[in-house]
Amino acid sequence: MIPAFTGTIFICNPATGEFVELPPGSPSLLREHRVAFGFDPWSGTYKVARHFIRSYRDTTTAQMDDGEEGGTTTSREYSCGHEILTFGGDVGKEEAWVWKATVDPPYPIKARTPICLPGVFFWSALKSMVLPAKVISNVILRFSLLDETFTVHPNPPCSEYLGRNDSLSALGGKLCYIHSTSPWDNSIWLAEDGSNLAWSLCRRVCLPIPRMLLAFACASTDRDKIFISVDACILLRCDLRDGSLEEIINMPRDMLYDLRNGRKINIGALFVAHYMVPYVESLLRIRPSR
Question: Can you give the residue ranges of the F-box associated beta-propeller type domain (predicted)?
Answer without folding.
Answer: 10-208
